[in-house]
């Protein structure tokens, strides 16, 4: 009788233990699933904000022109005889001119132009760019907005149109499925001495850009390195991989990542890899991946090249 009681008690304990173990496992699985769900939701929100920025009135989809200035007078307007021809019907035929003198650009406007500079009407002429300009001065007329930019030794006028066809037709970007495995622990191997890396843009211009070091991460047991650029409180990565030209944009992708914490650790999240502006417009001056940032693997995460 005692033996039977002992056997029943032992069976009860085993069943209870199994039940508790199963319940613990289920709780762990649910916790992981919940964590993954929260992570996926955060990436989807990041992507939604990215699309919203693309579609803004001054987003990349609204770009309507990029005009390089020559020394001296550069006439502009919607008339075909101008050096700089703005979209037809959007501004006066002879709206005025940009005068490039050394590192200074002046705007001269005709009475019919009705142009504002940072919200104030332009009276005949105004300086719109100097070497000391920290923030681009915005010129506007109707649906158009433009600023003067400098790339290397070139000065240009970048134009946006809030009524651009690309902006109105855009309906999203295809992506790989969001997978937490592509959020990888990384470390920054800091350069012992100040270092600059060569960055070439789509115009063929090459510049030396300061790099704080290389981001090192591991995929399937193998270490990979990407030289980083510093952008405020973040690191900026320009990279290429085996998906370029097939699933993703042929000239590489970009991503931002946090700087390392006090322990030296950080994360590189390829689910936030995004397509450069040059994929959406011919009026951007995108930097290209340096040759040391060409990865020999396929990064099947982030944005694809279809939209």
Structural class: alpha+beta
Low-confidence stretches: 24-33
Count of DSSP helices?
2
Count of discrete domains: 2
Q: Give Rg in angstroms.
A: 27 Å
Strand content of the residues, in percent?
Answer: 35-45%
- Order of the strands making up the biggest sheet: 1-11-10-9-6-7
**How far is the first residue's CA from the last residue's CA?**
76 Å
Task: Kindly report the average pLDDT value.
Answer: 90
Percent helix = 10-25%
How would a crystallographer describe the biggest sheet? Answer: 6 strands, antiparallel
Strand segment tally: 17
Order of helices and strands: HEEEEEEEEEEEHEEEEEE
What's the shape? elongated
Keywords:
single chain, 307 residues, alpha+beta, Tumour Suppressor Smad4, six-stranded antiparallel β-sheet, 2 helices, 17 strands, elongated
Description:
The chain has 307 residues and is α+β, with helices and mostly antiparallel strands. The protein has two domains: 108 residues, Tumour Suppressor Smad4, CATH 2.60.200.20; 114 residues, no CATH class. The chain has two helices and 17 strands. The strands form three sheets. A six-stranded antiparallel beta sheet has the order 1-11-10-9-6-7, with no helix packed on it. A six-stranded antiparallel beta sheet has the order 16-15-14-13-12-17, with no helix packed on it. The protein has a five-stranded mixed beta sheet with strand order 3-2-4-5-8, with no helix packed on it. The longest helix is centred in the N-terminal third of the chain and has 53 residues. The chain is elongated and about 65 Å long.
């Amino acid at each position: 009788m005692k033996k039977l009681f002992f056997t029943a008690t032992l069976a009860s304990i085993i069943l209870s233990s199994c039940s508790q173990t199963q319940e613990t496992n289920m709780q762990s699985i649910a916790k992981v699933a919940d964590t993954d769900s929260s992570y996926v939701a955060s990436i989807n929100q990041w992507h939604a904000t990215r699309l919203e920025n693309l579609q803004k009135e001054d987003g990349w989809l609204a770009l309507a022109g990029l005009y390089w200035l020559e020394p001296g007078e550069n006439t502009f307007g919607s008339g075909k005889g101008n050096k700089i021809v703005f979209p037809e019907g959007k501004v006066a035929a002879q709206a005025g001119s940009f005068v490039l003198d050394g590192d200074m650009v002046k705007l001269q406007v005709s009475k019919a132009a009705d142009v504002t500079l940072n919200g104030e009407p332009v009276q005949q002429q105004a300086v719109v760019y100097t070497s000391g300009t920290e923030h681009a001065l915005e010129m506007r007329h109707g649906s158009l907005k433009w600023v003067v930019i400098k790339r290397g030794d070139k000065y240009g006028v970048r134009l946006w149109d809030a009524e651009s066809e690309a902006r109105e037709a855009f309906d999203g970007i295809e992506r790989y499925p969001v997978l937490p495995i592509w959020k990888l622990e990384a470390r920054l191997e800091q350069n012992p001495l100040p270092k600059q890396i060569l960055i070439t843009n789509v115009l063929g211009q090459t510049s030396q850009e300061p790099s704080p070091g290389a981001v090192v991460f591991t995929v399937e047991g193998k270490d990979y390195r990407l030289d980083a650029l510093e952008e405020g409180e973040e690191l900026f990565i320009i990279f290429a991989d085996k998906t370029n030209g097939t699933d993703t944009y042929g000239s590489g992708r970009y991503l931002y990542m946090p700087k390392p914490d006090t322990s030296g650790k950080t994360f590189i999240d390829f689910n936030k890899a995004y397509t450069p502006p040059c994929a959406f417009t011919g009026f951007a001056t995108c930097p290209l991946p340096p040759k040391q940032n060409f990865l020999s693997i396929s990064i099947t995460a982030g944005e694809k090249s279809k939209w």
